[in-house]
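Good day; I would like, with your permission, to put a structural problem before you. A protein sequence and the structure tokens that stand for its backbone fold form the material at issue. I would ask you to consider whether the tokens describe a fold that such a sequence might reasonably adopt. I set the record out below, with my sincere thanks for your time.
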Amino acid sequence: MLDLTTSVLLLTVTMLLQSIGWLLIWLTQRHVFQLTMMAGGFMVYAVTMVMLVSRDAMTPPSPAIIVLHNVLIIAANGMVTQGVASFLGQRGYPYLMAGCVVVAAIFWPAALIVAPDNVGLRVLVSNALTIVAVAGLIRIMAVDRSQPPILRWPAIGLFVIEIVALLARSVITIDLMRTPNPAYDVVIQAWYFFTFQIIVTAIFIILLIMVGNRLASDLRLRNMALQREVAERRNLQDQLSAALATEKALHEEQKQLLRMVTHEFRTPLAVVDRATEMIGVVLERPPETVSRRLSAIRDAVQRLVQLIDRFLDVERRDFNILQTERIDIAGLLDRVKQHFAGMEVESRLRFSPQPGLPFYLGDPEMLTTVLINLIDNALKYSPDGSPVEIAARTEGNAIVIAVADHGIGIPPAELASIGRRFFRASNTTPATGTGLGLYNTRRLLEYHNGSLDLQAGPDGGTVAAIRLPLPGVMPDVRTEVA
């Protein structure tokens, strides 16, 4: 004959092992967070079985232990039901399960106070609350489509068997309440616990297989997502390769264009230089103004040739763009002044370098071009006869060269845009420039880590301030021409 104590001990061991199993599954699969509630429910089941064994050892059992034991059983039913629902992506019945726990928490203390010896009544209520939880599991399994039918229908069958066992236990309990038979009651309880152990073990196996199926499905989805990402990355790589090939082709076209520009610029410049030289030879004693203008023309031509050689000769990949030397800032201003010598605008220029300026390491040709561009702009956009002041000073750890005019100025809203390629202020006339002068000026200053600041002058016009950090650019700085 089946022994009640043996059945309870076996069920206790089974529940403990299953709770440990669910705990290990949850710890190793934390990303499946829905397992938390399910694992917690089985752990509470194990605790209630330990409490049942401890309670049976007491004579008489403590009412508080009885209440806590039964409330925990109903709570475990609700946790497992909600855990399965969450695992299958359903909402479940949280309010119904919470209501069952509240009923248990109210009923058991009242039953122990009103009818402490009526065990059958407490068994009937426990069966009813358990049937509610199992019925919820049946419906959850019935509407689920995430698990294959071969897993869902056996689980539904086991839950139905559990309800049948609970109903049979309830009928027998009612009969025993009419005609008590303690020996028969012990046998019935033993068989119920034995049946419950088989059902719980089978359900554990089915749920375990469901979890494995879920993990395999998640793995397949992740693999598919990874494959899509790999395909997208390959597509992007192909697009990048195509873009690089296009860029390379455009770069080759640019090189061809620069070669043509180099050739086309050098030819007329050579003609101008030769013609200027011949004029000086033909005129035996040219006036001083003519000599200065001829010299200025030849200097300008030579400077343009040097710039062309430096910036447009793309065949020399390691071309040393910066030809650095120690520059006397006052001498640099004299060089700029000499460029405008003999021109009608010479009298408008006011040079005022600060005495004792330190030497600067830089490219004199580039800086000369920068200052000539700024002075040309100042002369171009200011009234005839108005002065243009060129001042040089030290400011902190830098040399500042400012070119100030009294011209039309720059609209405040357009100050941030000045210096962009082909951008011209709205208050300029169409024939006065191309919008490349300040752009090229900024580019030349970038080679020196310098900057250009444009501001409105105190009495109108514009102040263009060059800032060159000291000591300058080291001679080993090299930039690849592209």
